[in-house]
Backbone:
């Protein structure tokens, strides 16, 4: 197991290195000039050149990349080109909104997708099971923005149960208000992701129903649902864990959209604003943070998958 984890950590490091090159290179292809933006529309070429020199943007791209990458090794994301403030501090502050939002969304997705997926599998030959499948198909096809607008209209405007915009100024100092402000955004992402998880869970559970050990348990007097839960869920769990690793990217993308829709001061909203300002250093730091989160979750999923599946442990040994 130790050898496996070390190998995955090496792949993680390689992935982050490749991502840093891609992020740095692609951002340099974007139109616009941060020095021109700072100088304003009336800035002279001399003033723009002076700003570029002060920000170090006149140096060769290789030198700029190596300087930034060296900072990454020290967990230093650099300073904002626009405000001059450390990027790491701002990213950490915004993660205080984005990570709880992603976590709550994942919980909603699991609570919706797994139990209903198992239920639909047990009743896959009945009208209720077919109806659940149709609803999941429709929900999985709904764009996150539409889902959020529908939830805002229902629970925010019509019923007035939950806040629809913003986050408490004092943040998590008032956990009740902070949590309430994340309920609708988490439902927006979680319901859509839960519909996707439902489909995979149902498919894996239907396959488990045809396994000999589930049929044998049912033949001994167990109900189909009890036999599936007691003997089939371990195999279903393997599929769920694998899908969760793939859904992390969906949670990240969903958070970027939902934070804009609900005016949440998270990392996704800051990323969109910084792209508009051409604050390349901040955008680089934000993208690398999101990339690291996705890769770390992938690493955890691989380790958990290996722990749950004895066949993989036997191959590794």
Residues:
């Amino acid at each position: 197991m130790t050898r496996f984890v070390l190998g995955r950590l090496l792949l993680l490091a390689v992935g982050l290195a490749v991502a840093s090159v891609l992020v740095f290179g692609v951002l340099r292809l974007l139109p616009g000039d941060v020095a021109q933006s700072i100088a304003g529309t009336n800035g002279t070429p001399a003033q723009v050149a002076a700003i570029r020199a002060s920000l170090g943007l006149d140096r060769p791209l290789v030198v700029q990349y190596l300087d930034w990458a060296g900072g990454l090794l020290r967990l230093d994301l650099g300073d904002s080109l626009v405000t001059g403030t450390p990027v790491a501090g701002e990213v950490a502050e915004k993660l205080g909104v984005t990570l709880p939002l992603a976590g709550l969304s994942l919980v909603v997705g699991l609570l919706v997708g797994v139990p209903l997926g198992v239920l639909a599998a047990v009743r896959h030959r009945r009208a209720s099971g077919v109806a659940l499948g149709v609803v999941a198909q429709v929900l999985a096809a709904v764009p996150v923005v539409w889902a959020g607008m529908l939830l805002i209209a229902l629970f925010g405007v019509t019923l007035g149960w939950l806040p629809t915009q913003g986050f408490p100024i004092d943040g998590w100092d008032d956990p009740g208000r902070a949590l309430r402000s994340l309920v609708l955004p988490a439902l927006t992402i979680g319901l859509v992701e839960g519909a996707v998880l439902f489909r995979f869970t149902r498919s894996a559970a239907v396959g488990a129903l045809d396994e000999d050990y589930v049929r044998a348990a049912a033949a001994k007097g167990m109900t189909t649902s009890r036999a599936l839960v007691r003997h089939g869920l371990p195999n279903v769990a393997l599929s769920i864990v694998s899908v969760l690793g793939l859904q992390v990217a969906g949670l990240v993308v969903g958070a970027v959209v939902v934070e804009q829709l609900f005016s949440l001061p998270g990392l996704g909203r800051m990323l969109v604003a910084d792209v508009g300002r051409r604050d390349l250093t901040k955008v680089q730091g934000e993208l690398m943070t999101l990339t690291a989160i996705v890769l770390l979750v992938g690493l955890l999923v691989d380790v958990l998958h290996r722990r749950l599946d004895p066949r993989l442990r036997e191959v590794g040994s």
Notes: Residues 38 and 293 are 32 Å apart (CA to CA). The domain at 88-277 is CATH 1.10.3720.10 (MetI-like fold). The longest helix spans residues 224-261.
